[in-house]
Each structure stands twice: as structure tokens, then as C-alpha cells.
Amino acid sequence: MDKKKRTFLIIAAVGIFALLFMTESVGIGLAQEGSDVVSASIVSTGINYQGMVTNSVGGLLNGKYTMTFNLYDVLSGGTALDTDIHSVEVENGLFNTEIDFDQSYFDGRALWLGIMVGADSEMTPRQELRPVPYALSLRPGAVINGSLSGPVLKVNTNGVDSYGFYAYTTGYDSEGFYAYTTGVDSEGFYAETYGDYSEGVNARTYGDGSEGVWAKTTGKDSPAVYGGSEQDVGVYGKGKEGGYFTTTTAGTWSSPLAGVNISTAYAYNHGVYASTTGDHSEGVNAETYGDYSEGVDARTYGDYSEGFLAQTTGNNSNGVYALTDGNNSNGVRAHTTGDYSEGLYARTSGESSNGVYAWTTGESSNGFRAHTTGYYSNGFMASTKSYSSDGFWASTKGSSSDGVAAYTHGSSSNGVWVQTYGDESHGFRAQIFGDDSDGVHVDSGKGYGVYATGKKAGIYAEGAETGIRAKGKTGIYAKGSEIYGVFARGKKAGIYAEGILGGYAAEFDGNVIVHTGRTITPVLEITGGSDLSEQFEIRGIEAEVSPSPGMVVSIDPEHPGELVVSNNAYDWRVAGIISGAGGLNPGMLMGQNGSEADGGYPVALSGRVYCWADASNGPIKPGDLLTTSETPGHAMKVTDRDRAYGAIIGKAMTGIEEGKGLVLVLVALQ
Question: Which of 31, 59, 345, 479 has a Cα at 20 to 30 A from 371?
């Protein structure tokens, strides 16, 4: 029959495709000495295909024919994805052959097979490839692509001690499971377990340098590992190290990156909760070596929340152990804005343990830095109850560094609040070795710089130069129920206090005892001025003569307890000189705080003070006795000793030849 007039009918047995698992026999056994290692072959990509060939009148054909097999992803038209051409033996119309296409096309899409015999046209319709060939998707190197809203591959197990997915690898640099996703809101691997004592993912590795789970993401806001639990722990790590985290990309001040980033949004939750029971164990051990780095940076915004809560029960244990070596770094940094919150709360019950142990060596670094803005909040709260334990222990070696830096802005809030119950324990203990450094340095715009109460001593401070240096509206408030409110010892000064805007550097409620030093003669040294003054109400004698510093004043007979500017010569009622003239301020000012007897003018009763003087009664020379004159508020030289009895102000230490001017006077009323 003419070849061009023949018509071939292909009956494709596509519904009974069988996948060859092995194209040749496989030898498996132990390697013998001197022989090659025998290994298993992987499954072939060939597909066994059967069919029947007849001529146009139904006659069965025999012989060899060239057959072309084309792979399409459309029912008609289009371009073949792959082609397989080979000679096929036909006997009594039947043939059995193997066709082979690139397995990458078997990725989940619908596929059709187009067949040509000899030079004839491709048969129609094309034959759809049914699911059996998709066993190729289980062949090593297989790829599954899809655009479903559900899972591309779903595995369900209901049996006890079952695995949804089990991967076993022994080769070098191999992954038990590798997932790649590019779609929005897609998970590389999603596991759900409902049975008790079941793991969503259980990974075990035995080779060195191997990870149980290794996850990498490149999309924004995509965590490599995300753990969420409606009942208990989001992520649980157990091993020689419970968890180890590191960052691989440098962050910025505005967009920092964290080795561990923990966020809580519910009440009574902790950003970090650490509990240790073994001896010599730390709830948190943080080491940082880069500049401008914090061992722990904790921030809370909810009320009744702790930036960091640590509790230890073993001996020689620290609730928080922080070590920093970089400059401008903090061992612990805590920031809270909610009311009734602590930047850090540490509790230890074991002996010789510290709530917080901080060690910094870099310059401008802080062992602990706390910032609170809420009401009734503490930058740091430490509780110790055992013998020889410290609520907080900080060591700094770099210049311009603080053992503790605390800032509070809310009312009724404490930068540092400490309670100790154990014997021979210190609520706060500071030792300094660097120059120009303070054991405790407190600045307070409002309230107390330091508020302390104690049974024995509210504050005990000892320094090479200054035991305590305080600056604020009230620098230090200290109260001791039995002995000392403040016990301070320093080579230069036990306590240095400075008032702001004319405020008091120190205020004492109760008796003050000053003991002489062992080698220093002065009991009390005053450097602010040179006279002893008391405050009085003073009246001017004329509208144009008002009280001012340097004026001589006398007892006012018309207003008991008050003074008046003097204007009589040899006035036996002279009381003193208004202090403050010539830039020489009172050295000590006495008064009854809040009493109506206190006035607005300090009057020098003894000591050195500048005084206005009139030389019209004779030139004034150092050593001359001075008395009142008729010139309002001015002193003059004594020339009549009989009249001067009881009216002497003091002795001149400087003089004037004529006219009026200021004279330094050693006040000595007689």
C-alpha cells in the first residue's frame, strides 16, 4: 500500500502507564577489599508506553516504524516542550516502547502527548498524561510548582508516634528538608500537630557543624523562624546552650537589628523571663564587644510590666550578668513608659548572689542604664535576702562611665530603689578608682537627689576625695532611725552639696554635731563668706533711703524685733551691718525657718563685712574704732570715746582719707 495513503490509528494506553523504578538490575552489597563500592541507582525518568497500530482499513501492522512523541502543555496548537524520536518494533499491531522527557516539565501542570508515525501528521486528539507519571515528582531532584491557595504538598498522619515528614541524610553539606517560597503570605514548611507530646518539627543532627533547623528568609518582615503558641512556649530550645542567636547584617541607630527580638502585647507577660536553679548559673549572660552596644536592651510600654525580670535561687548566681568591652556601651539598658513598672526587676535568694552583676571596661559606658517615665515606676528594683549578697554589683573601668545611670521623669518614681534584708548586705555599694569619678552622682531638678532611711545609717559613703556629691532641689534626704542619717568619709570632703538658683545646699532637721579631725585643726570651715549673719526686717528712715548691703542698722524702737537704718551719731542701739556689700557674702546665715521673725536682710553680727563710711569726722585708717554717724547708714571714726561707749560697731581693716566709701570692717559690737 502507498505509504502516503496509509492512515495510522494509535490507541494509547495512557491510563495504565507504569513507571519503571529501575532500568537495570541493582547490585547492593558490602565493598570488598580492592574493589569499587557498590551503590544503588536512582529511578529512571523513562515512561513505559503501549499502543496498537493499524492501517486505514483496520489491518494490523508488523515491522519497525519511526515514531515521534511530542510533549505539550496545551490540548491543541502551541509548541512542543520536548520531543522523543526512536524506532519502534510493531508485532501484530501491538508495540511497547519507552519515551523519555525532561522531568522538570512534570511540575504539577497539565500535559498532553502528541504522536506521529513515520512521515504522517500528528494524531488528533492529543492524549492527556494521567497522574501515574507524576511518580516522577518523588524522584531525587524533582520540583513541584503550584499556584494553589492551599498546600502544594500535604501530609496527614493519625497514628501514634508517626511523622508527617521524615527526612534522613548522611551526606556532607546536606539538608533534611529544603523549602523555597516566593508567594505572599506563604510558608516554606507548615506543620500542625494535635496529639499530646507531639512536635510540629523534630530535627536531629549528629554530624559536626550541622543545624537541626536552618532557615533563611530574604523578604521584608519575614522571620526565619516564627513560633506561636496559644497555650505555652512559642519557641523552646534545649541543649548545652538553650538558644544561640547572631545577626549577619549591620543595623543603624534608627533601624537596629537584634540577635533576639522579643515582643509582648498582653498583660502580665515578660519580654524575657529567666529562671535558674543550679549553682554558679546566670539567668542571663550577655557579652557585647562592639561599640554602642547593649548586652540587654529592654523596653516596656504596658502598665505593671518589667523590662527584664530575673530570678535565681542557687548560690553564687546572678539574676543578670552583663559584660561589655566596647566604648559607649551599656551592660543592661532598660526603658519603661507604663505606670507601676520596673526597667529591671531582679530577685536572688541564694547566698553570695547578685541581682545584677555588670562589668564594663569601655569608655563612656554604663553597667546599667534605666529610663522610666510612668508613675510609681522604678528604673531598677533589686531584692536580696541572703547573707553577703548585693542587690546590684557594677564595675566600670573606662573613663566617663557610670556603674548605674538612671533617669526618671514620672512623679513618685525612683531611679534606683533597693531593699536588703540579709546581714552585712548593702542596698547600694559603690567603689571608685578613677580620677574625678563619683561613687554616687545624682542630679535632680525636682524632688530628692537621694532619699534614704536606715536603722543604722541611711547612707554610708567613703571616697578618696568626696564621699557623696549631690546636686538638686534637695541634694540628699537621709534619715537614720537609730544612729546616722548619712555617714560619709572622704579625703577632701565627706559630703559636697550644692544648691541651685539660691536654694539650700543642705538642710538639717535636728541637732548637728561636728567632730574635729585627727590631724586637721578647723572643726568647721566656711568658704562661701566671712561673717555670721542673721536675717531681720529693716525699715528705711526716709523715702529716698532704703536698706541696702553695707548700711549700718540699729534697733527700731517703734517696731520691736526689727531694725532701722541708722542716722544718729554714737547710737548705742547699733545692731550691725547689712551683709553682702563689696561682693563679700555671708559665711553663715542663721534663722528660724518659716518664722515671722525672719526678715529679708542678712545683718552681720560678727566677722568681716564691707560697710559704708563717712570720713567727714576724720580720715579712717586700719585699726580705728568705728561708730554710727548722722549720715544715714554710714559709719564714722570714733573721736569721743566717752560717747562711743556701747555704740562701737567694730574696727576698720581698710581706710578712706575723705568723702564716703566702702570700708572693710571687723564687726565687734561693744
Answer: 479
Report which of 273, 345, 276, 283 is spatially closest to residue 313, judged by C-alpha positions: 276
Are 654 and 622 in contact by the 8 Å Cβ rule? The answer is: yes
Alpha-helical (H) ranges within 445-485 are none
- The three cell numbers of residue 355 are 541581682
Q: Of 226, 149, 215, give the one whose Cα is nearest residue 186.
A: 149
Spatial separation of the C-alpha atoms in residues 664 and 670, rounded to whole Å: 18
Are residues 626 and 613 in contact, defined by beta-carbon separation less than 8 angstroms? yes
What is the spatial distance between Cα 492 and Cα 464, in angstroms, rounded to a whole number?
7
Tell me the whole-structure pTM to 2 decimals: 0.46
Q: Which H or E element spans position 642?
A: helix 641-644
Q: Which three cell numbers stand for residue 207?
A: 554530624
> How big is the CA angle at 401 (ends 400 and 402), to the nearest 5 degrees?
130
Phi-psi region of 364 (alpha: psi -120 to 50; beta: other; left: phi over 0): left
CB 314 within 8 A of CB 349: no
With beta carbons less than 8 A apart as the criterion, state whether 663 and 654 touch: yes
Helices (H) and strands (E) in the chain, counts: 1, 37
* pLDDT tens readout for residues 454-497: 665 567 666 666 667 666 666 677 766 666 677 777 667 777 77
pLDDT in tens, 576-625: 999 999 888 887 877 765 444 566 789 998 899 999 999 999 999 999 99
Q: What is the DSSP string of 43-112?
A: PP--EEEEEEEE-TTSPBP-EEEEEEEEEESSSSSS--SEEEEEEEEEBTTEEEEEE---GGG-SSS--E
Q: Is the pLDDT of residue 448 over 50?
A: yes
Block residue for cell numbers 554710727: 628
C-alpha cell at position 64? 519497525
C-alpha cell at 607: 566677722
User: pLDDT for 252-290, tens place per residue?
Assistant: 766 677 777 777 767 777 777 777 777 777 777 777 777
Distance CA(71)–CA(646), nearest Å, equals 132
Instruction: Please state, in angstroms and rounded to a whole number, the distance separating the CA atoms of residues 88 and 67.
Output: 7
367: left (phi over 0), alpha (psi -120 to 50) or beta: alpha
Taking the alpha carbons at both ends of the chain, their separation in whole angstroms is 159
